[in-house]
Amino acid sequence: MTDTHNWQPASWRNFTALQQPAYPDDGALKSVQAEVSKLPPLVTSSEILALKQQLAQAQEGKSFLLQGGDCAENFNDCESGLISNRLKVLLQMSLVLVHGLRMPVVRVGRFAGQYAKPRSADMETRDGVTLPSYRGDFINGPEFTEAARIPDPRRMVKGHARSAMTMNFVRSLIDGGFADLHHPEYWDLGWVSQSPQSEQYRKLVQSVGDAIRFMETISGEAAHNVNRTEFYTSHEALLLPYEEAVTRQVPRQTGWFNLSTHYPWIGMRTAQMDGAHIEYFRGIANPIGVKISPSVTDEHIKRLCETLNPDNEPGRLTLIHRLGAGNVEKQLPRLIRAVQSTGAQVLWVCDPMHGNTESTSNGYKTRRFDNIKSELESSFDVHAAEGSHLGGAHLELTGENVTECMGGARDLGELDLERAYLSSVDPRLNYEQSLEIAMSIVHKHRSLR
Ligand code: PEP
Ligand code: CO
Hints:
By secondary structure, the chain is of the alpha/beta class.
């Protein structure tokens, strides 16, 4: 159990908090915080502790974490079709992984609270007008007007409600079984024939279908009744006044829980040892993640382990490396060795998205499928070579047929990006590219066995 001596949900206020909005009215902020702190939580402590145990299994190499969703949710996208398609692609990917890796998959969405974004500049100037940068729907609006850009604390209440609606719908879909999902006959697999690996992918899909039919025959039950799927949520816990307001004590449990999400993470830009985010995260009992960029030193990663998981509790700490395809072989070995030298137990996860962002000549922020795939594959190799193992993948994806990342089986190019680029922040894998990544993980994992 984390030592919460000298810690309170508000003790982050004694440290430097980066990436926070400047709210114009402190009284309004305080009254929103008081309101949020009374609203029902979005998750329970027993779910949080169950997830921690499952992550402990992944840490031991007995299961695999699939974490995915939008870079940023926005309030307008809190809509049934988008939510169910995102859940669908994640569940289909997880079936591919369960079958191909021969181990359970822990499913975690980047949703129901992924509303706050770090930005490289506090202000944005257009045509001589300077306004606060857009920091996510939790904080302000994307439109370039003063009304939209001045941070408004009421948005926290709206975001909390949107998160609750998202959770509620996800829970109902899962309880209802989402029946046809288990059957690859109903998946959109037209892209498979376009892939250079089409033969292999076709066989994989076929054997997933065979396995499910076999299980249904043996048990006399539909697949979704045999194995009730669990789904957990995560978001970057960036906006500390909100996170403070959703941090509670729970009867018959020790410690403090962030009850807005199961599995919050600290972003790359706010992982400073002396910063407010580390102070906040140190005191909560949730399983937590930290993004690890190439600039993290050996000393820094050791201190993250010490401070965030002083008792070396299994499942507590996930290190999500996002190094870029070109950096993995150079940077990952030293990071793994630094952690090993302390004896710290962590779950290692690869985010192959954020180190591979680039801009095209026609002005789109994009990522190449081959770089994403290559960062994942190299990460598997480096962990294996260092006597460690990669326990999961953290992806930005959507269930829609967007054109934001280049490449994949249909080989999307620069000109395709114009067709359906919908992300307001980072480029996401589309439905097909997401399934293809799941299949490529299986292929890679098999080659290591
Ligand atoms: C993100 O996950 O959307 C993000 C901003 O990542 P990072 O903190 O790794 O840059
Ligand atoms: Co992102």
